[in-house]
Amino acid sequence: MTDDSATPDTAHARLAGEIRRLRKAAKLSQPELAQRIGYSRNYVSMAERRSGNLPSQPLVNAIDTVLGAGGALRGLRGQAKREQRDLRLSAATGPANVVEAADQKGLALRLAETDSTSDSPQLGPNLEDVLSHLREQWHLLVKTDNLLGPRYALSGVLSQLDAVEELLASVRPEQRRDIVRVGAQYAESASWLYEDMCDVTTARRWCSQSLEWGLEADDQPMVTWALFRRSQQVAERNAGQILSLVQAARRASRDLPTPMRAALAQQEAYGLALDGDELQAQTRIDEAQNWAATDINGEARGGHGSFCTPDYLEVQRARCWLALGDPARAIELFEHHVPRLPTVYQRDRGMALGQLAQAYVSYGEPEQAARVAVEALRIGRRGSSLRTVADVKAVGGRLKDHAQLAPVSQLIAELAAG
């Protein structure tokens, strides 16, 4: 076992000690903290080591946020990075081109060149290459999320946001707009991923950042999309605020790609269903079908809203019927369209199965509800979709009076296994 007392008092050592102290103060084990930040336990263990590799910036950012360090951990990491740079510079002469890895997954973060007269990185001639790389990585991370869930996508998204923030720290004003536009995409993705991990506070913070950057870049479709995402973060039964935000999104940009129109229409349908307006809710879903997307690769190549395939929209129609208090119609649609969702959309499948389980409970079919809930639970846990897991836990709570039934007993056992 390493003797921490023998470790030099470096910023790296202080960072590791502070992470450990704050984690214990929050009464979290290493696995529990790992689950909250979307990393494996090994990453947390590595971050608490006083020697060896310095933990990545995205990892420290996530820990700082979850443990409420208020930027202290970020500051220590920055100091440790400067200490490492000073040691390297003392052993080398002249300017150097710097290419850093984002994390152990090997995503490239930035291309910069060091000015020999300044400690700050200056943008080199490769800015457009960097932006092209960031745009391409966004599509790949969207697919990672759809296939595997936030656990596997979040670290990459945070890594690229770190790259964006470092570029913005040294960019000239005339270059800022394109970087901010890319940053808004990543901020919105971070918002979505944290939302799926049931961290609504952080999700809203990133959504606000996306909106701010979208406004700065005069990217009206991005502003619209940020408002749409904000409508998804509203308390479940607050129909008025959902509808108000969707209407604000429509006003923000009237010239939208058809997938975004479909997404807005289905979200407005859900708000109308919560408000008890059956006719208008169904009309909005019909309108959304006119703008349905055809993305079966899960990479959002057609832009925001590409997930709104015809079957996805019918699943949302089923969700509306459930909100309207008609589980029979909801079940019929769920059963027909969930199996037809593109296979890449695993997280959407898990969420839809969780809603189908709720419909079965409302319809008085506890055994079928439990069977479907177990399937949803397994999908949710594979991808760390804590929202899906929370939906299944709610189903388990509603089924507790049927614990004598074998499928319900299995569901309760799997929930308890945690």
TrEMBL record:
Q: Name one Pfam family in it.
A: HTH_31
Name the InterPro entries on file: Cro/C1-type_HTH, Lambda_DNA-bd_dom_sf, TPR-like_helical_dom_sf
The record ties this protein, via Gene3D superfamilies, to: lambda repressor-like DNA-binding domains (1.10.260.40), Tetratricopeptide repeat domain (1.25.40.10)
Residue ranges annotated for the HTH cro/C1-type domain, each copy included? 19-49
The signal peptide here is none
Protein's name according to its UniProt entry:
Helix-turn-helix domain-containing protein
Q: What is the lineage of its organism?
A: Bacteria, Bacillati, Actinomycetota, Actinomycetes, Pseudonocardiales
